[in-house]
Amino acid sequence: MAASVTILEARLAHDGAEPITADSFDVVERELEDAADGELVVDVRYASLDPSQRIRLRPEGPGFVPPAGIVGTVARSASDRFSVGDIVVAPGSWATTVRVPAAAAERYDAPEGVALHHAVGLLGLTGLTAYFGVTRVLRPLAGERIAVTGAFGGVGQVAAQLIAASGAEVLGVAGGAEKVEGLRRLGVVGVDHRSADWLDEVDRWAPDGLHGVFDNVWGAASARLVERLRPLGRVALCGQMSGIGAAVTEPLPLDNWFRLVTRSLTIQGFRAADYAAENAEARRALGDLVVSGALDQETHLVPGWAAAGPAFAESLVGGIAGKLVVEVRS
User: What is the CATH number of the domain that holds 190?
Assistant: First the structure.
């Protein structure tokens, strides 16, 4: 058996219930033991930083290493399913090298011309979440008018483009002019919910109301859109970015919850894990759209784990534009 290797990992520096700041994580060295039977040692190349990781931190204390979806190269294999040098995607952690069960890893064959970091973004959990939310939950129809909140985030970018590809009209709701401009680069009409007249813009765009909302945000902005749903309108409820940093997420501040009855509305929460059996099919569909030029995702790359904590903290208050990914090894 090979000797252990020295790795770097980022650890929570305080109780997870406390606010996350730029100083919330320490990067430390430790020894990682070799792969046990049925395990892989994977040198991480890229790792995904997702707002949902904040929820996982809440009950933890100092020293906790957050989880992360990773793509990397197999450095040691104690499984007949993988060989040294294979590229895999797997559930990992905030570390330069990880041990993972081979049963939890998937061999990753990147479509030609698609950057490897998309394995943890556009073709990873964020892309899969958007794909299933649009195709299995929201099911937009040609000619419908659909709003997407958090539209320039990792999931929102993909969802907005998939809705447009379905033939529906899509309006991306984002926080800040930079994100609205980013949506424009992706071919999506955007509106800045921080502007005083943003709801007037929504009403001009959809004078007869919205057919659907793909919601990544929850909170007041999402409530104002739900109040604009037409009869039989529906919501695909994906995230809660507006309250992700708090210990408890407040109820959706609707003016009248009974409108769910009077307008026959549907609000369906979902997770990508609900459709995990279809991951391979979904990745192929997303990859085909990328190769054809119909789908893209703007990514915010941060260089290594020392930069990851501050970027993660900034993302929780809406300060990061695009999908947040750590470049661990280029």
Answer: 3.40.50.720
- Listed as own residue / partner, the contacts of 184-189 with beta carbons closer than 8 Å and 24 or more positions apart are 185/298, 186/157, 186/160, 186/161, 186/296, 186/298, 187/161, 188/151, 188/160, 188/161, 188/164
Expressed in angstroms, the distance from the first to the final Cα of the chain is 28
Tens of pLDDT along 233-285?
Answer: 999 999 876 556 555 567 778 888 899 999 999 999 999 999 999 998 999 99
Kindly state whether residue 286 falls inside one of the protein's structural domains.
no
pTM (predicted TM-score): 0.87
Please give the Cα distance from 158 to 44 (Å, whole number): 24
pLDDT tens digits for 302-313?
999 999 999 999
Q: Are residues 46 and 147 in the same domain?
A: no
Q: Are 44 and 32 in contact (CB under 8 A)?
A: no
Looking at the fold, whether 144 and 46 belong to one and the same domain comes out as: no
